[in-house]
């Protein structure tokens, strides 16, 4: 693997999931593979799971890890040809090349502005690192994608499914703040590549990009969509058409035990209790959020392993 900025960078998904499950059984099997190799993790935004699980994954492979909260460093300029006489002190051209001298792999987390759709969709932060760094780049959640989370979710469904083709429902939920579409986008794209029956349910007007959903079933009636579901993935995203706006906080969309039926409950975390999902769901045996969070280590580890093998 040359980079992992999008799930399309996985050449054989089924094999990759299988290998990740094997790594989970024997996490230190390849503890020499990353010897004398360094992962630099760059955070433009907060993280709990991504930060700790990716560091753990790298260390399981014997890598050194360095972490930089980018907001503690010089303000970066991403535009070409700018006269840098305002707030930015260092251009991405120098920064990415400098970091590449300290790193064998660079992982980046950079959320969208949710105010400038065109700029966010250009993935200018992630793509600037891909363009100017001289080492492989891993996406730890960008403006439009969270491929490490989606791979962890695919591993979780593969491990827990009791059917060859489970019904998976992605259900929008209310949230007081404007959140990115990244997790939902990558989850949809991942499920489109798996042997599942996928339905998306959300209020009218909350459509994700058609470039992501393609011909996936969309049902605006949540109760109807949830019928006979095996896995229910709950996630808020802000409005995509009226970009970044919170136009709906209808609490009737919150996931409850009665709506969930017999399905397993999934969420990437962090989650706001009794806003996105009621306590009774999260505290039940049907919740698999801990398994998802645990699988973040093995999604990162299989990606790092495939990248190290290709260095
Ligand atoms: N799910 C996820 O990416 O968690 P963090 O934001 O805590 O990394």
UniProtKB/TrEMBL annotation:
Residues that hold carbamoyl phosphate according to the record: 47-50, 74, 109, 146-149, 268-269, 296
Chemical reaction(s) catalysed: N(2)-succinyl-L-ornithine + carbamoyl phosphate = N(2)-succinyl-L-citrulline + phosphate + H(+)
Keywords: Amino-acid biosynthesis, Arginine biosynthesis, Transferase
Pathway assigned in UniProt: Amino-acid biosynthesis; L-arginine biosynthesis
Domain of life: Bacteria
Gene3D superfamilies in alphabetical order: Aspartate/ornithine carbamoyltransferase
InterPro entries in the cross-refs: ArgF'-like (IPR043696), Asp/Orn_carbamoyltranf_P-bd (IPR006132), Asp/Orn_carbamoylTrfase (IPR006130), Asp/Orn_carbamoylTrfase_sf (IPR036901), Asp_carbamoyltransf_Asp/Orn-bd (IPR006131)
Top EC class for this record: transferase
GO molecular function: amino acid binding; ornithine carbamoyltransferase activity
EC number from the UniProt entry: 2.1.3.11
Transmembrane segments: none
GO biological process terms on file: citrulline biosynthetic process; L-arginine biosynthetic process via ornithine
Domain named Aspartate/ornithine carbamoyltransferase Asp/Orn-binding: residues: 183-304
Binding site for N(2)-succinyl-L-ornithine: 141, 175, 235, 272
UniProt KW Transferase keyword: yes
Aspartate/ornithine carbamoyltransferase carbamoyl-P binding domain boundaries: 5-159
Subunit structure: Homotrimer.
HAMAP family named in the record: SOTCase
Annotated function: Catalyzes the transfer of the carbamoyl group from carbamoyl phosphate to the delta-amino group of N(2)-succinyl-L-ornithine to produce N(2)-succinyl-L-citrulline. Is essential for arginine biosynthesis.
Family the entry assigns: Belongs to the aspartate/ornithine carbamoyltransferase superfamily. SOTCase family.
Annotated protein name in UniProt: N-succinylornithine carbamoyltransferase
